Amino acid sequence: MDVSTSQSSAPLLTNNNGKSQVSLFRKVWEENKMVWYIAGPSILTSIFQFSLSFITQTWVGHIGTLELAAFSLQNLVISGLSFGIMLGMGSALETLCGQAYGAGKLSMLGIYLQRSWVILLGTALPLTLISVFAKQILIFLGQDKDIAELSGTYSIWMIPQLYMYALNFPMQRFLQAQSKVMALTWISFGVLTIHIPLSWFSIMKWGLVGAAASLNFSWVLVVILQYTYIVSGSCKDSWSGFSWSAFTDLLSFMWLSLASAVMLCLEYWIFMVLIVFAGLLENPEVKVDAAAICMNVEGWTFMVPLGFIAAVSVRVSNELGAGNAAAAKFSVWVTVAIALVTQTVFVILILITRNDFPKLFTDDEIVMKEVSTLAMFLCVSILLCGIQPILSGMAIGAGWQANVAYVNVATYYIIGLPIAYFMGFKLDWGLKGLWGGLQVGIGLQTIILLVMCWCNDWDRDVQLTKDRFSDVVGGRDEEKS
Fold it and tell me: What pLDDT sits at residue 118?
């Protein structure tokens, strides 16, 4: 199935008979199938892995409010911080492995995987200090002493999960670059089916210790099964064993990993800022609860764009590696259109049920009313977070992480955040003002990325990709076991 032209300069949307409409329909349909081939399993994988902590949190809620608060605080702040950094740094592999696969340099995928392991495991060492001193950090942030103390203890128990993140994310990107996404889905589903009863038994038997043990075990199992799949022969062309070449060229790899982490973390953390600001408003308990419910809903709907991020980054990087600039650009626009359709469905459902869906999360009438009044802002965020992640995935596939990181700093924190503060506190618009200000930043970032995609010289990106692998052709950077 090939929707790309043989050369990037060839007309993309015409055929030999000049019937452009027929050709356009066929090419959109073929690209749509390829996007969903990657995005569908990726969406399911994200849901299954997201459900690991969600299920554990549900069982912990039956122990006591203190344990639930400690778990939630650790999962959102301590683990969430490490998760964002590891996810971002692992995304560098999407650029390199995807382009190497498209260029036919399959032997380099295994080298890149090992380099990413070295970088992420090295990063996990200083991040461990965050878990060790979680109690002091949470108290410094003004959290209740009892909750902070228990959450700090739980954070230490969850240190193994941090190192599983360092191993897991590179393997996921390694397999996604080769479109081996069904394996990830089945592994995640299998682990989830084991985790549900194991987590319930462990928590009911040993409390919060059981929660940590079951969650750590499940992530260890994910890593073991993915590694077993890779070395079993399913990736024989891209994995030929460990190599000393993994320890070469680490500096440039580190730079791309850091740029990826900054780009994604700036996007991830901006919504944590919204929660913090909500706690500074009048009647903060209601505001925080309402904001948290909306973020929860958006989190679940975000599972779909998360799959599209994987799909578009793979498609763009593969096509650039293969020298098909026009096909890479075409894939971005098709994926954006698909995302708009799927996110519009979510928006319609939320608008229809705006007075009913809050009942799934709370029995408090005041909180439910507050959530209902925020439904329109939630819908705008869902639409923006349907388009914007696709463009972030495009940036990852093309290797634009550093440039997009600067865009995120400017739009989110220099423009969006001050506007949110002004509207929320100075104009006294409350949570609506805070959220609206942040949406100004997100909207501006989305517009800039759309312009970057439209005006970008994609042929230049193809040449940069060729230059990246020119040394491989000469044999200087080939894998040597």
Answer: 92
Q: What is the pLDDT of residues 196-231, one digit of tens each?
A: 999 999 999 999 999 999 999 999 999 999 999 999
Q: Which two tokens stand for residue 304?
A: 């779909």
User: What is the rounded distance in angstroms from the CA atom of residue 215 to the CA atom of residue 198?
Assistant: 9
Q: Which residue type is seen at 391?
A: L
216-237 burial code (b ≥16 CB/10 A, e <16): bbbbbbbbebbeebbeeeebee
Which residues, in sequence order, are CB contacts of 374 under 8 Å at separation 6+?
290, 291, 294, 431, 432, 435
- Residues contacting residue 236 through CB under 8 Å, at least 6 positions apart: none
Question: Model confidence over 322-336: pLDDT tens digits?
Answer: 888 888 888 888 888
Checking if the pLDDT of 298 tops 70, the result is: yes
Rounded CA-CA distance 398/96 in Å is: 9
Per the document, the length of the chain is 481
What lies within 8 Å, CB to CB, of 12 at 6+ separation is 5, 27, 326, 327, 330
pLDDT tens digit sequence for 386-437: 788 788 888 887 878 778 888 888 998 899 899 999 998 888 888 888 889 9
pTM comes to: 0.78
